[in-house]
Each structure stands twice: as structure tokens, then as C-alpha cells.
From TrEMBL:
Residues 39-378 form the CHAD domain. InterPro entries: CHAD_dom, CHAD_dom_sf. Residues 156-174, 378-401 have a biased composition (Low complexity). This is CHAD domain-containing protein. SMART domains: CHAD. Residues 1-30, 156-176, 378-410 are annotated as: Disordered. It comes from the Bacteria. Pfam families: CHAD (PF05235).
Length: 410
């Protein structure tokens, strides 16, 4: 099954065209925060970043070719694949954000192919992480002190409550482990069978991809990128300090608009039981909106890597969104496993508890992001503030680029 994070960004976030299409209004006085760009042109800065990421991709490819096929070096091969994915995502993001500086036909084609490759190579790792997360949660829930899953919390209350609030005793449940008992073991075995099968299929698909003509064409294009960036247009020859920041700011604006559409006021409330109750009905719709924000925040983070900028608050917010995605997909996997025909009631009960636990993890990740995003946005605004209140004195001359209605609709 194709996951939202497997899709190219312009498909996953609802946009039909690459982003952006034109060069925003530039700042004549970018301020001291971006003075480290020096006298380099926009093309030189972008090309240097693309060269480094392309070199990292090729290094990972060579390492994979040297280590693949051996059980002893399986971990090395897996790390090589992750390196290729990391570099592919960054190249694609740079080509997307700084599109006005590039040969658009070549950049769009390469970005689309890298998004496809990153998605295919990432599925095996996604299933592995999902299984580890679910089995770890099952172990935590089943090894909880007796009575943890019932109202009173005493050992005696747990023994009594398991007969009334837990699954039927004849299905193999016990008072230990919060009423999960043998159902947790069976649920773990079911999840392991299903996700291991999915992971095996993803591994086979990745191996087929790495041997395909399409992949070799992508690798050849990346090899060319390592020495020749697809730059074009007059903007690439202009000073980087005037050209690159407005494009990076546009990526921030787009992410901020997506965040504004989220129910952050509610998500910032800890132990948000009301929100949790509603997610049982509309969790898929809300999860898709949060995943779109994850993609845009990641795009914004990669865009600022080109400038040499580092925002710890933004990195922490991005990690919270990654946890949100992992928990949401784990909850979906538990829900899908619970719909397996002819499973025991105790197994279905354990999977239901697991699903609820992961939905609580989803809410916890939303709460964390709600607290982290405001510092990230404030840091961005401080970095782009102009000296001596120039923005207030000359509106429109140095103001942030306005996002068009087309951009808002995507």
C-alpha cells in the first residue's frame, strides 16, 4: 500500500505544479543574519549544496553495491539506502524551492524521479519501524502493573475488574498485564506476520528498483548533478543574499499557512480527551492534514539548509511531526489487524487497546508540535527582520513576498 509520505511532495500536499513558479520580490537589505552568504551568487550557493548532496548519494550507492547480498553487511547496506534517501530528499527539496534559478524541465524531471525513488526505498524501513513501535507498545501495555488498565488501580481491583471490564476469561485473558494477557501475545504474533510480510515485499521491490533501468537513469542524472547543477536564468547570477532568502521565506509562508489551518489551539491542551474522541471518527482526514504540514515543514527546513541556517526549534517541531506520522500509521496498522477475519476476542481486545494507545501518542505529538511551532516561527521572523524598522517605513519595498491565491489553494 502506498503511504502519503511515499508520494512526491507536490502530490502529497495537494499541489498540482512544482513550487514556486516565479522569483519573489527580493530584499535589497537582508540584514546581518544572512551575511554569511558572502559575495557568492545564488547559483554558486545552490550548486555547492546540490553538489554535496549528489556526492553523498553516490557515496551511499557505492557503499550499497559493496555491501549488498551479504548477511554480515546487511546493516551497512541498510544505512547506505538511508543515506541515498536523505540526499535524494534534500536534492528534490532544493530543486523545488529554488526552482526559478534552475532549468525547470531538467529540475522538475529529476525532482520527480528522486521523490519516486525515496518513496520506494523508504517503505521497508517504514514497516520495520512500525513493527518495532507496535511490539514495544504491546510489551509496555501487557507488562503494566496489575490494575493499570482499570479504574481503581489496586491489584485486587484488577483481579476483580478483569472479569467484568476485560475480555472474556474463556478467551485466555488474565488479570496481569492490564487485562491483556494472552491476547497481547497473539496480537503481537499477528502484527509480526502481517508487517514482516509487507516488509519482505518492500525489500524485494527495493532490490528490483535498484536494478532497474529507471534507477540507473536517475543515478546517471545525479552523477551529472555532482559536477553540473541545472542552473538557468539571470537570477542565478545575482547575489545569493538577495535572491535565496525570499525563496526560503516563501517555503516558510507556505508551511505557516498549512499550520494555521490545523486546530492548534485544541492540540496545545494536554490530555486532550475531546480531540481524542473525535479522532476515532475523522482521524484519517486530520492525519492527512497533519502529514501535509509535516511535508511542508520538512521542505522549509531543507530550504534553509541551503542558506547554512540552523533552527533547533524547527528541527524539534519536525521530529514531533515525524512521531505523529509514525503513531498514526501504527494505529492504522493495529486497526487493520483487528479486522482480520476469525481472530479471537482476546486478540481483538488487545489490538483495540493498542490502537487507542497509539491514538494517544498521536495527540501527544500534536501537543508537542503545538508548543514547538511558535518558537520556530518566531526564530524565522527574527532572522528575516530588517534593521531599523525598514519594513514599517517602506511597505512593499522590502516586505515579505505575498503568496498568490494559487499557492494558498494548494
Amino acid at each position: 500500500m502506498v503511504q502519503p509520505h511515499d508520494l512526491p511532495l507536490n502530490a502529497a500536499d495537494g499541489g498540482g505544479e512544482p513550487y514556486p513558479k516565479t522569483l519573489p520580490e527580493v530584499r535589497e537589505d537582508p540584514g546581518e543574519a544572512l551575511s554569511d552568504l558572502g559575495e557568492a551568487t545564488a547559483g554558486e550557493v545552490l550548486a555547492d549544496y546540490l553538489h554535496r548532496q549528489a556526492t553523498g548519494f553516490l557515496r551511499g550507492l557505492r557503499l550499497h553495491e559493496e555491501s549488498a547480498g551479504s548477511a554480515e553487511s546487511a546493516a551497512v547496506a541498510a544505512e547506505a539506502v538511508r543515506t541515498m534517501r536523505r540526499c535524494a530528499r534534500r536534492v528534490g527539496a532544493a530543486l523545488r524551492v529554488y526552482r526559478p534559478l534552475t532549468d525547470t524541465a531538467r529540475a522538475d524531471q529529476l525532482g520527480s524521479e528522486l521523490a519516486w525513488l525515496s518513496g520506494v526505498l523508504g517503505r521497508e524501513r517504514a514497516y520495520e519501524v512500525r513493527l518495532e513501535r507496535l511490539l514495544g507498545a504491546l510489551h509496555r501495555l501487557s507488562s503494566a502493573p496489575a490494575g493499570a488498565a482499570v479504574a481503581d488501580g489496586s491489584a485486587a481491583g484488577s483481579a476483580a475488574g478483569s472479569a467484568t471490564t476485560g475480555p472474556p476469561a474463556q478467551c485466555g485473558s488474565s488479570s496481569s498485564g492490564g487485562g491483556l494477557g494472552i491476547g497481547a501475545a497473539r496480537a503481537g504474533a499477528l502484527l509480526e506476520r502481517q508487517l514482516t510480510l509487507a516488509r519482505t515485499r518492500a525489500h524485494s521491490a527495493a532490490l528490483q528498483t535498484l536494478g532497474s533501468a529507471r534507477f540507473h537513469a536517475v543515478a546517471d542524472a545525479v552523477a551529472v548533478l555532482a559536477s553540473e547543477a541545472p542552473l538557468a536564468g539571470e537570477a542565478a547570477a545575482r547575489p545569493a543574499v538577495h535572491v535565496l532568502p525570499p525563496l526560503a521565506e516563501l517555503a516558510h509562508r507556505r508551511a505557516a499557512e498549512a499550520v494555521d489551518a490545523l486546530p492548534l489551539t485544541r492540540a496545545r491542551q494536554s490530555y486532550n480527551g475531546e480531540a481524542f474522541a473525535h479522532t476515532l471518527v475523522v482521524d484519517g482526514e486530520l492525519d492527512a492534514a497533519w502529514n501535509q504540514v509535516r511535508l511542508l515543514v520538512r521542505l522549509r527546513r531543507y530550504a534553509h539548509e541551503v542558506l547554512g541556517a540552523c533552527d533547533p526549534a524547527l528541527t524539534a517541531a519536525s521530529r514531533a511531526l515525524d512521531r505523529h506520522r509514525d503513531a498514526a500509521e501504527a494505529a492504522s496498522a493495529a486497526s487493520a489487524a483487528a479486522r482480520t477475519p476469525r481472530i479471537a476476542p482476546a486478540t481483538a481486545y488487545a489490538l483495540g487497546v493498542l490502537h487507542a494507545d497509539q491514538r494517544h501518542e498521536v495527540e501527544a505529538a500534536r501537543f508537542s508540535f503545538g508548543r514547538l511551532w511558535r518558537p520556530a516561527a518566531s526564530a524565522q521572523q527574527a532572522q528575516q527582520a530588517r534593521p531599523a524598522g525598514a519594513d514599517q517605513q517602506a511597505p512593499g519595498a522590502g516586505a515579505a513576498p505575498v503568496v498568490s491565491s494559487t499557492e494558498r489553494g494548494r
